[in-house]
Specification:
The chain is an alpha/beta fold. It is 30% helix and 22% strand. GO terms for molecular function: 3-deoxy-manno-octulosonate cytidylyltransferase activity.
């Protein structure tokens, strides 16, 4: 019976923290933490998609289903599309391997929200998540992505724009932006189409691949959740994660 498929892209050669998927100061490889969080979601299949034999060996060691994909893929989405090709899935969820503290409830809400958005008159091409801006994060930081949405109600709002710049600009009053959370859900056909699109001008400018879909006129549905979980981009991020794991928080 078909059901959602979560694909975890796990590339070895990260620019800022090479080999981070295999860092194991917690006693487990980083990617295992992400896999375990995804596996705790009921009614889904979970697959790791990688470009490196060491990650394959590690994944097989902790019991994950894993596939090798083309090392030349320009994005995690392209890697997910290759891994999902030919799979019998109702939808495909892209959950990055460097999200060891991803909240299973957020994944459930994404699945439910995308299913509902696919039933609306204008179906979602992609669904993703956002949350209110956290008080302890600088909104001018370009590494945290902002999203502006419609305010029409329904299963999900529609993304108007994503940016690394602060938006909307608070010219007349204080305004806290929405924080984008980089989990994505696709119908398999939409995933295949998206993976074959040439990156748009805006996507290249901002280095945000979801802008390719917006610039093509596609609907990107945004489901609101309470909070985001911290991803691992730098050695400092990983050290903070290890500290939280050791303290049990």
């Amino acid at each position: 019976m078909s059901r959602p498929l979560i694909v975890i892209p796990a590339r070895f050669g990260s620019e800022r923290l090479k080999g981070k998927m295999l860092l194991a100061e917690t006693g487990k490889p980083l990617v295992q933490h992400t896999w375990e969080a995804c596996k705790s979601v009921d009614g889904v299949d979970v697959l790791i998609a990688t470009d490196h034999t060491d990650i394959v060996a590690a994944a097989e060691g902790f019991g994950a289903e894993v596939v090798m994909t083309d090392p030349a893929h320009p994005s995690g989405t392209a890697r997910v599309a290759e891994a999902a090709k030919g799979r019998d899935a109702t939808m495909v969820i892209n959950c990055q391997g460097d999200e060891p503290e991803v909240e299973p409830d957020n994944i459930r809400k994404l699945i439910e929200g995308h299913d509902a958005a696919m039933r609306e008159p204008r179906q979602a091409f992609i669904s993703t998540l956002a949350c209110p801006w956290p008080d302890d994060i600088d909104a001018t930081n370009p590494n945290t992505v902002k999203v502006v949405t419609t305010n029409r109600g329904g299963a999900a709002e529609d993304a108007l724009y994503f940016s690394r710049s602060i938006m909307p600009f608070p010219r007349t009053r204080e305004h806290r932006p929405k924080m984008h959370i980089g989990l994505y859900a696709f119908h398999p056909d939409c995933l295949a189409r998206f993976a074959n699109m040439e990156p748009s001008s805006l996507a290249v400018t901002e280095s945000l691949e979801q802008l390719t879909a917006l610039e093509a006129g596609e609907r990107v549905a945004v489901i609101m959740v309470e909070r985001a979980s911290p991803g691992i981009d730098t050695a400092e991020d990983y050290a903070a994660f290890v500290s939280r794991q050791k303290s049990g928080s």
